[in-house]
């Protein structure tokens, strides 16, 4: 699995990252969502440089223009709900892509262990296509793994791009192990943060991306 950390090189991406981390700016949920979306757009443009292209002749009012166009059939997938703004950023760039949506959430089981529960998926056929899975926070890697494996029920993609705003080394190691360090998978990160806290949140991270996008949710244990 190839890992690309976009923050290793200075770009405008760092501005978007700084704003989604800032506790004062986070108070504006619309601005937070927009910055996550812009990270998706930036990442999509960088990712587009790795795709396959062919020369296409386009008829203009005055002649023929040769243009290299993407030949990959793209499927954009995300995990509800936190992934929606990042997904939209990719869709703004890859506007003719097919789309897939999965639900997954964290739950502590009877043994006191953290597990990921997936209950819903809507996806097109994926066989031979280029799959992009967008999820803003790669903390443990468990949600991304569950979502990716569920999508494989719809076929084997030509290549998979796993895309997140912030990841941890622990999650990256977990994904490498679970995917057997596959050459058919690339992990894109806007940043990599060092650790997880006792609640499995990324530190320094930014908090709960879903809550910051859409408001605080009621947990089953709170009912």
- The CATH topology, please? Rossmann fold
Distance between the termini: 41 Å
Helix segment tally: 6
The biggest beta sheet reads:
8 strands, mixed
Tally of discrete structural domains: 1
Helical content, roughly? Answer: 25-40%
CATH architecture: 3-Layer(aba) Sandwich
Give the uncertain stretches in residue-range form. none
Q: Can you tell me the CATH class?
A: Alpha Beta
The gyration radius over C-alpha positions equals 18 Å
Structure class: alpha/beta
Question: What is the general shape?
Answer: globular
Elements, N to C (H/E): EHHEEEHEEEEHEHEEEH
Q: How much of the polypeptide forms β-strand, as a percent range?
A: 25-35%
How many beta-strand segments? 12
Oligomeric nature of the chains:
single chain
Q: Can you summarize this structure?
A:
With 223 residues, the protein is α/β, with parallel strands linked by helices. The protein has 6 helices and 12 strands. It starts with a strand and ends in a 9-residue tail after the last helix.
Characterise the protein shown here.
The protein is of the alpha/beta class and 223 residues long. Strands 1, 4, 5, 6, 7, 8, 9 and 10 form an 8-stranded mixed sheet that branches. It has a two-stranded antiparallel sheet with strand order 2-3. A two-stranded antiparallel sheet has the order 11-12. The chain has a single domain (2-52, 71-215), classed as Rossmann fold. It is 29% helix and 34% strand. A hairpin with a 5-residue loop joins strand 11 (195-196) and strand 12 (202-203). It starts with a strand and ends in a 9-residue tail after the last helix. The chain has helices at 13-21, 29-48, 84-93, 142-151, 169-178, 209-214; strands at 2-5, 53-60, 63-70, 74-80, 98-108, 114-122, 130-134, 137-138, 159-167, 185-192, 195-196, 202-203. The longest helix is centred in the first third of the chain and has 20 residues, at 29-48.
